[in-house]
Write a structure and sequence with these properties.
The complex is a heterodimer of chains A (312) and B (64).
Chain A: H1 24-27, H2 32-46, H3 52-62, H4 74-92, H5 94-110, H6 116-142, H7 149-171, H8 180-185, H9 195-204, H10 215-225, H11 230-252, H12 263-287, H13 294-310
Chain B: H1 2-21, H2 39-59
The chains are: A mainly alpha (312), B mainly alpha (64).
Chain lengths: 312, 64
């Protein structure tokens, strides 16, 4: 699958003559259930603030799956899965995206914002460009981190600290003694965030190229600290995800072509990721009416620490 | 003044996009020694150029 390393102790593998470079498409058939499992995992965890990329790096190592995550086709495979989840987000927010695209064109040509859709379009532009450029410049060095599941476990724990910390700071701004719904009512909608906050939140997305740091978690934390309601911070996170994931797909997925990778299987995995992401998004939108990031923060902290010691 | 700065940024990005496409520069490339066009770098620079032009349109003086 990703230039498999032969494990002589495992059934189904053979000894290779010295000097052979295995062709993964011929010598080792892709394990279809592994690809589908990672697709499901990716889709289910992409929108939760728990780092889908970190899980995709750590879990195969914990399960001793014999593929090399530093292989050059691993990142495009994950990016294809990201495209599946981005597709789910477009479907989920289709009416918003139609308005945003129209608003973007009108505001860009006019040079002035005159409607909420136009404002949201420009907020997404401010949030996407910095993170995208920084991530693009750093991605060649960041890709090397895929070879280190232990590094991903450390970042996952750090992600947990980030989520819990953001909720701690948020609580200090909330009125006490009222219901969660009333507390949330004191905060803003997604299109009311300032452009400076949108740019900072988008820049923080660049950290999500580190396996273990959750893009949705970082953007949700940014939204909360900028004064958004939890549900609106999640919505902003989902909207910001779409162009940056699509952009990464444009850059990375063409590398799958001609690599001998089983594109049919990977496409099915991407569709599975999209279905899981759609269902996850629907759940999270309902959850964040009154829910908080703390449970996900404690999960990331625990999972990061435990996997760090298990991966020795 | 800000509008001019954004237009200048857009022009610089377009110039470097062309340089990347012609394989004259290979900065920030995974394999700078590769002689294949750095299409992805050019695409990113064009996107930044478009964003800079949009910013210039917002920053330009407008009739009251």
């Amino acid at each position: 699958m990703f230039d498999l390393e032969p494990r002589l102790s495992q059934p189904g593998y053979r000894t290779l003559p010295a000097g052979w470079v295995p062709d993964s498409a011929i010598m080792y058939r892709v394990s279809w259930w592994q690809a589908l499992f990672i697709g499901l995992l990716q889709g289910a965890t992409e929108l939760f603030p728990v780092s889908s990329l970190g899980h995709a790096v750590i879990i195969p190592s914990l399960l001793h799956w014999s593929f090399r995550q530093s292989d050059p086709t691993f990142l495009p495979f994950l990016t294809l899965l990201h495209l599946g989840t981005a597709g789910a987000l477009v479907i989920l927010y289709w009416p918003e995206w139609v308005g945003i695209v129209r608003g973007f064109v009108r505001a860009a040509l006019r040079g002035r914002i005159e409607s909420p859709e136009e404002r949201m379009a420009m907020l997404l532009l401010m949030g996407t460009i910095p993170g995208g450029v920084v991530g693009f410049v750093l991605k060649s060095s960041i890709a090397a981190l895929f070879a280190s599941p232990r590094a991903a476990s450390v970042f996952l724990a750090a992600n947990g600290v980030l989520l819990v910390g953001a909720e701690f700071l948020r609580r200090r701004s909330e009125r006490a003694g009222i219901s969660r719904e009333e507390q949330e009512g004191d905060f803003k909608a997604a299109d009311q965030i300032s452009f400076r906050a949108a740019a900072i939140t988008g820049l923080c997305q660049a950290f999500a190229f580190l396996p273990g740091i959750s893009r949705s978690g970082v953007t949700m934390c940014g939204g909360l600290l900028a004064g958004l309601r939890h549900q609106e911070a999640a919505k902003l996170s989902f909207l910001l995800a779409t162009p940056i994931i699509a952009g990464a797909g444009i850059v990375e997925v063409p590398q799958l072509a001609g690599s001998g990778a089983p594109l049919g299987l990977y496409t099915v995995a991407a569709v599975l990721a999209g279905v899981a992401a759609y269902l996850s998004a629907r759940f999270l939108i309902r959850y964040f009416r009154s829910g908080r990031l703390d449970p996900y923060g404690y999960y990331c902290l625990t999972a990061g620490v435990v996997s760090f010691f298990l991966l020795r | 003044m800000l509008a001019f700065a954004f237009v200048a940024l857009a022009l610089v990005c377009v110039v470097f996009a062309v340089l990347y496409l012609l394989d004259i520069v290979g900065w920030f490339s995974r394999d700078p020694s590769s002689h294949s066009p750095h299409t992805t770098h050019a695409i990113v620079l064009v996107v930044v150029a478009v964003a800079a032009l949009i910013a210039a349109n917002f920053a330009r003086p407008k009739p009251v």
